[in-house]
Amino acid sequence: MEVRSEGIRLRFWFVRLCSSIVLWICLVQLVTVSELWHSHLISGITSGIYNIAQIQLPKQQVNGVDHLPPVFLPPRNYTSNGFLRVSCNGGLNQMRAAICDMVTIARLLNLTLVVPELDKTSFWADPSNFEDIFDVKHFINSLRDQVRIVKRVPKKFSSKYGYTSLEMPPVSWSNEKYYLEQILPLFRKHKVLHFNKTDTRLANNGLPLVLQKLRCRVNYQAIKFTSQIENLGHRLIQMLHEKGPFVALHLRYEMDMLAFSGCTQGCMDKEAEELKRMRYAFPWWREKEIISEERRSQGLCPLTPEEAALVLQALGFGRETQIYIAAGEIYGGERRLAQLRAAFPKIVKKETLLDRDDLQYFQNHSSQMAALDFMVSVASNTFIPTYDGNMARLVEGHRRYSNFRKTILLDRKKLVELVDMHQNGTLKWNEFADGVKQVHAKRTVRPTRRTVIIDRPKEEDYFYANPHECLCEETNCDEFLGHHNSSSQVA
Fold this sequence. Notes:
By secondary structure, the protein is an alpha/beta fold. It has 20 helices and twelve strands. Helix 18 packs antiparallel against helix 19.
């Protein structure tokens, strides 16, 4: 009886294996036909079989959690119009957004994208290549049904063989018309274009839905950190969650930000002078003479650690709150963190949670260190940025995409008014706390449309902070976002 039972089980699994193989073969054939016919019906059937095929696959365990291995659709068959090389400029999150945009542009123009080059000349001087931060194999394979991505241009197009590609920065905030009418003809002539700047080169608004959704697919699915970063990031998150809920405070009170913004609140005279010298040392930081007090009153400065301590207390966070400082080295060190640490003794950073050996691999690689902070910030119970820079905005978008995890967007202009009134004795503590809570009653992230400001794209809401097209089904967006939450268009 046992032999017969074993035979039945073997036949059952054999039939199941054969069924999976047949389904996969059908999937490949249907995708090919769909590419040729552009049939919505065929695409729908293909998608259904693709999902079935995923369910049939054996599971793998990562950190004790079952995960299905990635299943990639067959490569898209198209005639490439040329090779797009890109050099991403800026810090980790500025480069991340640029990568998403460049994939989208390559798909729009039917180009072959070369794995992006990362900035090594910025303030952070991080020598990391793409494959040092991101899983390059996953990046290429997960997008192969959309765009062809290669690690390098063919030899015949390399400088070694005397070929010089056209190098240029595309115009900022451009829509698909600019790329189709002005950039595509250049590929027909030069075959290889090198975009030497990639920040904010694609419009926030006014793009077809299919392009917006592709930007999200790259950001939330195709871009993965390397296994070293992922594993250490998950360890950090687990350590924090084991001690209870935690707040990720993106305390952007770092030397580069203060030098760039000209904000010196709470700094000693020699520190203010040091920041000014740094501002002059970097030619691309064009604004040199800055009055810190004016900038702060306009809400254009990151909150100081002392201001952050008062604001967190006013918002109702108590001494027992676990706070993770998502930032690099705070300017002024422990002297500037003293008031914040006194109010919240359970302050931690990656450097205090992890052993030195754990972080040795990441030392002198600021983008890799920032990737750890990014992972923790996305996974935190509450995220509070003290400045609306690139990391803050991308984390906000990720948390919107992850079922609108709690994010508090601080109104810095109003806050510095309240802080100053409290510190000069005009506002008692209870009045100050009530004022802070009232200002932020509606500043917790919720479903809403991006603000569109016609002819002023720099001032409108950033796509990656609120990719609302990707947060709901197309037909249900109005109901999901609600007309009362819609940001008005400003002429």
